Amino acid sequence: MTPESNEAVVRRYVEDVWNRGDLVVADALLTFGHVRHDPLLDVDVVGVDEVRQQISGLRAAFPDFHFEVAIYAGNGGFVTRRWRMTGTHEGQWLGIAPTGVKVTSTGMALSRFEDGKIAEEWIQRDDLGLMRQLGAV
Fold first, then answer.
1. Contact at 8 Å (CB) between 39 and 127?
2. Which of helix, strand or coil describes residue 69?
3. For 128-136, which contacts have Cβ atoms below 8 Å and span 24 or more sequence positions?
4. How far apart are CA 124 and CA 130, in angstroms?
5. Structure pTM?
């Protein structure tokens, strides 16, 4: 796959799966054994079904959330994206009761590709800033 086609996969993953909540599309974009390394969680998110659960949980807590992304095609089967997420905290999230607070969070992800699909992701974001906005710290 070319860097441009990998970039298109990441863009579709963000727009269709995360922003629109079309979780079925994840099958076409992620490998079966996809691994998502998320420092906010105690264990890695492994498999497409667990990714769907993570997305569903975020969408339940922030029903209006939206990611704006800048995607940087990389070499050797990697793509990096930088994002800005906005949303209103209207549901339970990570043990934090709904606050009604409109939040903004930034972060980055590195995606590794296998056979044209995202096989692995490393996530880094401003969790402390997000927790401050929610009054959790």
1. yes
2. strand
3. 129/105, 130/103, 130/105, 133/101, 133/103, 133/104, 133/105, 134/89, 134/96, 134/99, 134/101, 134/103, 135/99, 135/101, 136/96
4. 13
5. 0.90
Token digits of residue 129: 């800033």
- Quick one: pLDDT at residue 1? 66
Number of domains in the chain: 1
pLDDT at 10 (0 to 100): 95
Helix (H) or strand (E) holding 54: helix 48-61
Q: What local confidence, expressed as pLDDT, does residue 72 receive? A: 87
Mean pLDDT by runs of 10 across the 137 residues of the chain is 84 96 96 94 94 95 96 84 97 94 97 95 95 94
Domain that includes residue 39, residue range: 3-133
CATH number reported for the structural domain that contains residue 49 in this entry: 3.10.450.50
